[in-house]
Amino acid sequence: MHTTISTVLVVLTASALIVLTGCAGKPATSEARLNPLQAYHEGQLNVARKFGDSARSEEGQVLALRLEAAALDSLGRSEQALSVIDQASALSPEDWPTIRARAGILYSLGRTDETLRLLAPAMAAVLSPQAIESKPAGMEPAYDIVPAVFALIEKGAWAQAVEILEHAVPDDDDPGYAAYRTLLYCYIKARAGSDLPPNEMFERQIKAYSGDASSHYAVLVNLWSGQKFPDELTVRPEGWRDPAIRQDALAEFLFYGAAYAKYVAKDLRPRQLFLPRLNRLKPYGNIEWIHAKRTF
User: Fold this and answer.
1) What is the 8-class DSSP label of residue 193?
2) Which pTM does this prediction carry?
């Protein structure tokens, strides 16, 4: 079983972001607690395999294989996932969701050049929507580019990563995703230093989030932009009622807290706190965790 986290308490100081978990009056026991993300992805894997057993059409088989591969990749079994997604690709080589899933798996395996090659159509659609006569079925360019952005970060292609992020505005204009993109910009800017000129759009966004505590992304943007917050700030987004979403959000706090300590505060002590906690948390499927293993 897992202990329900009732509060995520964010303590912001000049040099660190410390995330504390409160849980029904007693400390969490991470060793004995069920991993919600692991349970979720294992459930998805079982569903995919059962669906595959009953799928009769080629379309159904491709979908089942794609879902199975995505679950395996999220569970850290990426080599096995690649073998499964290759079966889906053999059945339907032009299927965009399958291509996108394969790109994500290749990113997990550290094969960033191949990730970028496969996601090139999505990046092109983001940068110049008119250049693509018709998007492939299932393509959502603004969201599909996330593994490509992390791949570009790992290659040190700062300007290209920011350019893609700037134009990655989804059709639904999701405000949470806007804050996430701004947070990623802050991270890239800190990594790049003087090698990256300021981006006017994102710099305006940073100012717009000043004092905003409506989401954990907004809180993190404020930390990265050097805004002064109270010593303690409690954030309780509604979505965190779901244990898996809560775990994923906590992983983001830990990753960006460690990154802030390393690249902005130049203080190793918080990083030494955050990274072991992130690894103990084991946020299966979280791209920041995958990235952290290769970056830190």
Assistant:
1) G
2) 0.86
